[in-house]
Amino acid sequence: MTTSHLTASKIGQRIRPGTEVAGGFFRMCVLTGKALRQPFEWREFIWNGWFLMRVSLLPTIAVSIPETVLLIFTLNLLLAEIGAADVSGAGAAIGAVTQLGPIVTVLVVAGAGGTAICADLGARTIREEIDALEVLGIDPIHRLVVPRVVASTLVAVLLNGLVVAVGLGGGYLFSVYLQNVSSGAYLSTLTALTGLPEVVIAFVKAATFGLIAGLVGCYRGLIVRGGSKGLGTAVNETVVLCFIALFAVNAALTTIGVRFGTGR
Fold first, then answer.
1. 24, 61, 212, 238: which could join 118 in a potential S-S bond, CB 3.0 to 4.6 Å?
2. Could you give the CA distance from residue 176 to residue 255 in angstroms, rounded to a whole number?
3. pLDDT given for residue 155 in this prediction
4. Residues 231, 224: contact at Cβ < 8 Å?
5. In the chain, helix, strand, coil percent, each to 5?
6. CA–centroid distance for 174 within its chain
7. How far is the C-alpha of 48 from the C-alpha of 26, rounded, in Å?
């Protein structure tokens, strides 16, 4: 066998596992979409929604407050340099709605929500609970995956709204009471660059982030192998995969928002 054949064989062996994982992920996505038509597991959905909100709420607040202060402080310094501090409300709104909310949602959903889902399902997989469900004739996708994906999507939307509210409220307090910006000017310019299209795009981003994080977390949890060590590896991989996918989606949806936004 020639060197080129050996090299091609090694490359094929490295590529094949990746293609199998990608194929399995898309297959699970299709099965999840089909399972949505069946009777919905409301109890599992409510429990997982509460669980995800509980593990994500404090990290969301902890990340959004310093991000808000940094964004508004830097923006107001730049506006003050050109004598336009009174339009800081417009900058705070466009920053909080289009970027701050989605970015913080990405960090929290991927770092807390997706990993929590992966750890939960991964532990069930290691304990062979998933196999037991299949033996009993219960579809794990319908029983476990669908409620978690829907809960992750809804929680991401709620977190995005929370981050935007914290951003605008924190921006108001910081601008008016610490940087001496007129409160009337701040409030009157909030909608100068931010309208319904930006708000819709922001919530579409959040829903998409939650959907992707839920799907990735569920898939990595269902294919865990290697006991507790494999579960730890799967959780770490979930964070990385979620970050890559969510930041790519954020860039694409931001481009769409700029194309059709109020500021055009």
1. 238
2. 32
3. 92
4. yes
5. 85, 0, 15
6. 27
7. 23
Q: CA angle, 28 as apex, 134 and 101 as ends, to 5°? A: 125
pLDDT score of 9: 45
Tokens of 180: 């001496």
Alpha carbons within 13 A on the beta-carbon side of 209: 35
Tokens (6 digits) for 189 = 């310019």
pLDDT value for 245 = 83
What pLDDT does 260 receive? 66
| Cβ contact 119:221 at 8 Å | yes
Residue labelled with tokens 């889902």:
117
The secondary element (H helix, E strand) that includes residue 262 is none
Which pTM was predicted?
Answer: 0.84
What's the burial of 141, exposed, middle or buried (CB within 10 Å: 0-12/13-18/19+)? buried
How far apart (Å, rounded) are the C-alpha atoms in residues 129 and 73? 51
Closest C-alpha among 67, 60, 57, 94 to residue 174 = 67
Q: pLDDT averaged over consecutive 10-residue blocks of the chain (264 residues)?
A: 44 50 79 82 90 88 82 79 78 82 81 87 88 86 91 91 86 81 83 82 88 90 84 84 82 76 53
